[in-house]
Amino acid sequence: MEQALREDIVRHCRLLHQRGYLAANDGNVSSRLDGNRVLVTPSGVHKGFLEPGDLIVVDLKGNKLSGTREPTGEIALHLRALAQRPDATAVVHAHPPLAIAMSLTKKKLDGILPEVTLSLGRLQVVPYARPLTDDLAKAVAAALEHSDAVILERHGTVAVGRTIAEAYGQTERIEHASQVLWSAYALAAPRPVDEAEQRALLRMYESSRLKR
Ligand SMILES: [Zn+2]
Q1: pLDDT tens column, 29-70
Q2: Which helix (H) or strand (E) holds 202?
Q3: What pLDDT does residue 212 have?
């Protein structure tokens, strides 16, 4: 079980790198092992070359329980996200370029693409907070109350899921949405979904989340 989870994290870290969703040592991934332990990526390792044995086990306060390296510097972000979302098992933090670029523009992103709303809730940009701080971790956790994946202003994305694959998939979805919105804004300001329709879509997202 733990070995399979380690391999799953490594496979998705390589995919994040291959797809250009992070560069070099950037980004980090975590998954619950049980009620008291979390498996996380180490700091200072290139995600394209990560190995299952590089991963670290920490407790819910971030204390290292096993592993030869040190846990990611964004450990607080992962632990606060998991605490905020007991329905989630995995957290993926990446630096997808189009999502970051859109976060620099202050353009409206939410309420334009219906399937994005249905899949991940509100498409939010969490206002800038300094990387590696508890301020950032708290802001992300609060935003995850309304979404399964959020964009961090000037920084990247955070996605949660019931599996690593699901959290990875939300990362892919948010970058794809950013690409569509980027293309639309290059032509003209995209028209939002009707407000009543957006509210209905959000209710559908929330009820599907409660059923998990
Ligand atoms: Zn980051």
Answers
A1: 999 999 999 999 999 999 999 999 999 999 999 999 999 999
A2: helix 195-210
A3: 66
Average pLDDT, the chain: 97
Judging by DSSP bridges, how do beta strands 149-152 and 125-126 pair with one another? parallel
**161 Cα distance to chain centroid:** 9
What is the structure's pLDDT at 210? 72
94 Cα–ligand 1 center, Å: 6
Pairing of strands 90-94, 28-32: antiparallel
Q: What spacing in Å lies between the alpha carbon of 78 and ligand 1's midpoint?
A: 11
Q: What's the 2 CA to ligand 1 centre distance in angstroms? A: 25
Residue ranges of domains in the chain, CATH in brackets: 2-210 (3.40.225.10)
Q: Which amino acid, residue 126?
A: V
- Ligand 1 centroid–CA 22 distance in Å is 9
Question: How far apart (Å, rounded) are the C-alpha atoms in residues 84 and 159?
Answer: 13
pTM: 0.97
